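Quarterly update from the structural biology core.
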Amino acid sequence: MISAVQQTEFETVFPFIKQATPEFVEMFYAEAQYMELPAGVSICDEGQHCSHLAMVLDGVGRVYKLSSSGREVTLYRIYAGESCVLTASCIMNQGSFPAMAVTETVVRGFLISPAKVRQWFCQDDEWQRFIFGLLSHRLSNIISVVEEVAFKRIDVRLAEQFSRELARGQKIIHKTHSDLAADVGSSREVVSRILRDMVQRELVTSSRGHIEVINEQAIIELSQQ
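Predicted structure, tokenized:
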């Protein structure tokens, strides 16, 4: 049962629901399930069928590809007010999940069953627009990931990661070298070497699981190359 407080929170992070018909809104909250997952939990493995579409109220999930050698490439992250486009795609075509998904923090949200995702897509314009918007937004993100991995230097991609954190007001990044390697689609050894160079150039300081930007302007300039 979705509470009134949870409904208000949902309407804040998913404003499309306020444009839907009263009939759809009532049906939506009757069918949605509230969920809360701890950090570090597997949401879906490659090859599995998606049991629900998660609509995130709070927290961060990560979707990534894993090679046979164990190398990871982060495709995208899912934040408050977002859903997983690969899950939506798999539900719509009734296929299997082509990647891996985990929670990076505690994640709270609503779960929608595959049957309702497909049914509402054919019945409600606002839900249809939400799904199409999700597909469009994430497709451009994934294309950007492919472009970065194929064409950009690793140091520039690392600087872009740090610049995004700076834009959020964060000078300290709590990630290991392996985490950063997954984010930029490289190996831990390469990332470690580039971070050592950044430390020598006094752009950042680095310790285990802890990167601090000490020359913000230089990092931003590097990210724009």
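The first strand starts at residue 33 and ends at 37.
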